[in-house]
Amino acid sequence: MITTNYFDPANNTRSGDEIRAMQDGLIVRQLAYCHERSPFFRERFAAHGIDPRDIRGLEDLRAMPVLMGKDDERRSAEESREKLGHPFGMHLCAPLEDLHLTATTSGTTGVPTFSYTFSRDDIDRLSGAIATRFRNIGVRPGERVLFCFALGIYATTISLFGLRKARALPIDIDARAGTEVMLRMAALTRPQWLSCTPSLAEYLAARAPEIIGMEVGELGLRGLILTGESWATIPGMKARIEAVYGARAYDVWTPAGHASGHSCDSEAYHGMHGIAPELCTSYQDLIDPVTRAPIDPVHGAIGEMVHTSLQREACPTIKYAYGDIVQLLLDECPSCGFRGPRIKLVGRSDDMLIVKGVNVYPAAIKSVVAEFAPAVTGDMRIVLNAPPPTILPPLVLRVEHAPETGAGDLDDLARRIAAALHRTLKINPRIEFVPPGTFEKATRKTPLFERRY
């Protein structure tokens, strides 16, 4: 069993109270820095009647209202383009000449934002945390990592800094190059690790026999490093990917350059372990996604994660509601013994649907549907006939049945899936089955919605 270590080794022996005291000091310094350097933050503080000198630590920070969201960040970027001639936002705190890297969000829900804009010191700290993540899951110096994401200006590029700092060798292939290129490069270079989205990992497994004449399990991978989708909490998906590759699959994330975390070396899934409390307060700050009121960060709490940078120079965030709905876990990890906070991703606030007054997340729907494998493939789409979040019943789900599921079995299967969704999520959907292979596999994030409006 591989031990999960903090980015700062000193935190491995600190108590929870000592880690929070460390964060308190960093909060005071970061808020003063942002107030001094950024007109955006000065305006935000003033609009909410906040004197940053009154914020003395984590408890005061948690009581503050949300100051930023995706739309605020986009408006900040638009204002800086108009006034200052750059796209990094009015919340940029470092001089332009100190910027070392910029990368954007995917833009799947709107105009891309330059959330991943860093100074050299920012990159050094963040890449160190990412390198710790890779070392924790077992990546060794000199090992090859086939890295298959959209490259260039996109956020996943920052992981390459961490891989190199961990002394691994990334073989980075832009996922847009296509399945054949990725698989042939895997066969040629025989990497020890594959890093991509879960959807792409499954698609590569399906296409490998046709393209390279072998199963992916014959490539000899030691592990998969997966991100970009809510996958590990879906029943059976982790076990299915690990079985087909013959290797452990790990869940990792760094949303907006914060909350660096990963799952541990375990058959069961115990959430993503927060290994860098000196970089942000994300694991300690949750809000209700509807009322925006703070939620006590107790074991089992579910809420929207709020990001506050603690040492970022270039584009820090303060009370940034980024949209990830998580469940907080505070007990000791039963697998690796990690004593820090862990989270399981529940869904995205901007994906939330309201069906007859019930709040539902697509990831939760997919999780229930996946329980009916092998009668279904696990792929599905939620049909939207009008803009969300409010859905006029019934909610329509298009679900791929498995090749071996006969037409005579579908009516009963639909009834059982609908009953499970009503029992678990209090919704009464209409199930429409489609043949296996109907939904095209995406090389980036697989969409959950079929928009007909």
From TrEMBL:
Entries under Gene3D superfamilies matching the protein: 3.30.300.30, N-terminal domain of ligase-like (3.40.50.12780)
InterPro entries documented for this protein: AMP-bd_C_sf (IPR045851), AMP-dep_Lig_C (IPR028154), ANL_N_sf (IPR042099)
A GO term for molecular function: ligase activity
Residues of the signal peptide: none
One family name in Pfam for this protein: AMP-binding_C_2
Residues covered by the AMP-dependent ligase C-terminal domain: 357-446
UniProt keywords, alphabetically: Ligase
Protein name (record): Phenylacetate--CoA ligase family protein
Native species: Nitratireductor arenosus
